[in-house]
Design a protein that fits this description.
The structure holds 2 protein chains of 2 kinds.
Chain A (H helix, E strand, L loop, with lengths): L8 H28 L2 E4 L2 E4 L3 H8 L1 H36 L7 H13 L2 H12 L5 H8 L13 H16 L1 H12 L3 H9 L4 H28 L4 H7 L12 H10 L8 H27 L8
Antiparallel strand pairs in A: 1-2
Helix pairs in contact in A: 1-13, 2-3, 3-7, 3-8, 3-10, 4-8, 5-11, 8-10, 10-13, 12-13
Chain B lengths: L7 H28 L4 H6 L13 H9 L2 H32 L5 H13 L6 H10 L6 H25 L3 H9 L4 H12 L1 H17 L2 H6 L8 H11 L4 H30 L6
Classes of the chains: A mainly alpha, B mainly alpha.
Chain lengths: 305, 279
């Protein structure tokens, strides 16, 4: 057979382009950045400083306050997604997958629309709607007699982050919905028919039969949400600017990294501290992925049909 | 699903929930587009009204088209997206074929190495990527963006495509080998046409984040002549914060092309996500 030649050059030819681009543009810079976090500049010369950048990041109150603020905000941002986006996504998917539902194609196409829009559009559109000047949001609350509830949500420190998280939920609810929808459709009819024979239908069928079967998909969605949230930047930057106002109330790791390494207004960019922040983000994401891979995924039971 | 028949009340409830959520999903887009066609006074007086003839006004669009180089931005975005997409699909399919078809030393390790990029975002390497691009003289070029997006798209493309290629029957490939086709000919003439549906799915998945990305254009290519439409509209809208007509018009101009593309490809996209599930 032709494939049993001593050296199968074609394998190398097939792999080389992807491997070259991926290694050169992604892997090497990733480790380059981690490496850079161990250096600093002294009089225009790059010198090795060991972990001193990290000591500054965690020890110097000027840096550590900003870092913990960003990390705390990011954790809240993630929590809102887990508590709002994923349950809504699962609920919508469960309803969509009910048999003989008319217009299911229309609904899933429409609900997925916000996901394809860019952050720029989403950020500005919501800024306009929530703006106290234009007044679509206050006007609509007025219609149902709740005008007193209105506040300039994006401008208040205590609400801004939650508001942005909910805007992001609005945008991305389509992803858990689609993935869960796919998982629900792949449950074989025989399983559901057997459940019906035993008298398990409707809501109890969902909780007792379907939910355990789609748990692996929920696990995947959780880790995707985690990685996406801890690396988010665009929405905050568009809606609140690089300073993540009001008073850093919406600052998350992505905006903190951008400000630090690229600079803004009068502050000069600092690639070394920027790398240190990227290193910390790398550790956080790696930790999350490991918890998922070894702590959650292996414990979830998978059913083979 | 034969036996399960929903009762009437439950069907109505299901539709009510879905319609409510559909309205929530579409409302902001709808409000933006209708108000972009109204005069400034009408925008504020009654934001929810349709643009009836007496309020109809294109002043926003006139401002936008006069001031911003939207056509240029579109062209840049189109070039970056199409070229990156081409390389992701070609290189991704080649690597996926190598990983799924041949047994060789380090196969699993190679697969894991490529899969690393699915979980670890490329943004974390931005500092070194910027240094690399500065050293290579590629800052403010579309090439820099194309390289970055190709690397960003490859891991997921290889992963999805190799899953698909495993399902192509061996008989077909062996028949090709007996007929004397080279491995390259087998890949390009037998495999590629067969995995076209998977390629379309990967294509849509790769395209959306590239088109919408703000981070890399902001850092690697902020110059006027290489701005993408996402960065361009972000800066442009920022300049017009108080000119509501212009802001709404430029938002609508940014929404409509994406929406049209989505409606054309939505079947492909949804079929891709639910692939294997619909029997």
């Amino acid at each position: 057979m032709a494939a049993k030649k001593p050296v199968r050059w074609h394998i190398a030819v097939f792999l080389a382009p992807a491997l070259a681009v991926y290694t050169a543009i992604m892997i090497i810079p990733l480790f380059g950045t981690l490496n850079l976090s161990l250096f600093n500049e002294e009089g225009n010369v790059r010198v090795f400083v060991g972990l001193r950048n990290f000591i500054t990041l965690f020890g110097d109150p000027l840096w550590s306050n900003a870092f913990w603020n960003a990390l705390g905000n990011n954790a809240w941002f993630f929590l809102v997604h887990m508590l709002v986006q994923n349950p809504i996504g699962v609920a919508l998917a469960a309803i969509l997958s009910s048999p003989r539902l008319r217009m299911a194609v229309f609904y899933r196409t429409a609900i997925f629309v916000p996901t394809i829009l860019s952050f720029v559009i989403v950020g500005f559109v919501w800024k306009l709607i929530l703006s106290p000047i234009w007044g679509i949001a206050p006007g609509m609350l007025d219609m149902i007699g709740l005008k007193s509830l209105f506040a300039p949500w994006l401008g208040k420190e205590e609400y801004a982050l939650t508001t942005l998280a909910l805007i992001s939920v609005w945008q991305f609810v389509g992803i858990p919905m689609m993935l869960i929808y796919a998982a629900l459709l792949s449950i074989p009819d025989e399983v559901l028919e057997a459940a019906e024979m035993d008298g398990i239908t409707g809501a109890s069928q969902f909780w007792k039969i379907k939910l355990p079967l789609i748990l692996p998909s929920i696990g995947i969605i959780s880790i995707l949400t985690f990685v996406g949230n801890f690396n988010a930047f665009d929405l905050i930057y568009v809606a609140q600017g690089a300073l993540a106002g009001p008073d850093y109330a919406t600052d998350i790791l992505g905006t903190f990294l951008y400000r630090t390494f690229f600079g803004f207004q009068l502050q000069l960019g600092d690639p070394y501290m920027g790398s240190a922040i990227a290193g910390a983000m790398f550790a956080i994401i790696l930790l999350g992925v490991c918890v998922y891979l070894f702590g959650i995924q292996t414990r979830l039971r998978r059913y083979q049909f | 699903m034969a036996a399960a028949r929903l009762s009437k009340g439950r069907t109505i409830a299901a539709h009510a929930i879905l319609i409510t959520y559909t309205l929530i999903a579409l409302f902001p887009v709808f409000v933006t587009v209708i108000n972009s066609f109204k005069s400034r006074k009408a925008i504020f007086a009654d934001p929810l009204a349709l643009p009836w003839p007496e309020h109809f006004d294109l002043v926003g669009y006139q401002t936008v088209l006069k001031q911003g180089d939207f056509l240029g931005y579109f062209q840049n975005s189109l070039i970056v997206t199409c070229v990156s997409l081409f390389f992701v699909l070609l290189f991704g399919a080649m690597a996926a074929f190598a990983l799924s078809e041949y047994r060789f030393k380090g196969n699993t390790l190679m697969g894991l190495y490529l899969a690393l990029g699915i979980m670890i975002p490329i943004r974390l390497g931005t500092v070194a990527i910027l240094e690399l691009m500065v050293a290579a003289g590629l800052v403010n070029t579309l090439t820099a963006l194309i390289l970055v997006y190709t690397a960003q798209g490859l891991p997921l493309a290889v992963f999805i495509l190799s899953e698909f290629m495993k399902s192509v029957s061996d008989d077909l490939k062996n028949a090709g080998r007996i007929d004397g086709l080279s491995e390259y000919a087998i890949f390009f003439t037998l495999i590629l046409p067969l995995v076209r549906p998977a390629m379309a799915t990967v294509g849509v998945f790769t395209m959306i984040p590239i088109w919408n990305d703000l981070w890399f254009p902001l850092i690697l290519a902020p110059a006027e002549e290489v701005k993408t439409v996402t960065l361009g509209s972000q800066i442009f809208i920022g300049q017009f914060v108080t000119n509501w007509n212009a802001v709404l018009a430029s938002l609508s101009l940014a929404i409509v092309p994406v929406l049209v593309l989505y409606l054309i490809f939505s079947r492909q996209l949804i079929r891709g996500i639910t692939a294997g599930a619909v029997k």
